[in-house]
Amino acid sequence: MTTLSRGAAVCAAVILAVGGISGAVARPVSYPDAWTLQIFNEARRHAALAHYTFTPKTALGLRIEDRLYAEHTFFGVQANHLIRRWNAPGSQANVYLKTALGAADGEFNTGEGSTRAAGLARIDADWENRRVFVSAGYGGYAVEGQAFRELTGRLGIAPYVADFGSLHTWAMVQIDHRPDALEAQGAETLTITPLLRFFKGPALLEVGYSTNDEALLNFTYRF
After folding, report:
1. Is 19 helix (H, G, I), strand (E, B) or coil?
2. What per-residue string of b and e applies to 73-88 under the rule 16 or more CB within 10 Å gives b?
3. Model confidence over 202-212: pLDDT tens digits?
4. Which of 65, 67, 75, 98 is most buried, taking the most CB atoms under 10 A from its CB?
5. Across 21-25, 84-88, 112-116, which has the greatest mean pLDDT?
6. Of the candidates 81, 21, 72, which has an alpha carbon nearest to the alpha carbon of residue 47?
7. Which of 171, 175, 223 is nearest to 22 (CA)?
8. Between 212 and 9, residue with greater pLDDT
9. Residues 79, 98: contact at Cβ < 8 Å?
10. Which residues contact 215 (CB under 8 A, 6 or more apart)?
């Protein structure tokens, strides 16, 4: 199966799983009783997540992720927790904990298809005002017999300040560092992706192109 078709299959599976989902910054925790659908196609992975926010600090959902560098697909339940939020005049900062447990299906190192227990844990932090956005995250993904570390970061600048309900635009640079996953393949462990973020109302779209010649296309819809 090609990279594009595998990514499309992942996205379609989650859309069907949440019953055909048809409010948006890409927050891991939304407002209570809100559903969020997120689709990611970036840095050698395709993923889709549908989650429901139960409280102002906790969201729970389903995650499907195609780990292209690891030759397997992860299926599991993900919990997002807002550890701390700081509100200041004109700015906000957040720290989140994300964990997921489930199974991974693929060829792994043996060349034989199998299903194994898998999970991930990650901490993300961000700070933003209406002109500048900064974020960083560190975590690990593990499947029986394998473990992968991941370090990511973003810097964004808004060329203009839009009114509430208008189209907001950000120019960003994303950095992904996956030493365990890519070094063994002789590939570059550091990926840099310039991208544009657009959001209006409940919808957010990101488009970019990375230094490893892969397109980035992320979409979030909240309702």
Report:
1. coil
2. bbbbebbbbbeeeeee
3. 999 999 999 98
4. 65
5. 84-88
6. 72
7. 223
8. 212
9. yes
10. 41, 207, 208, 209
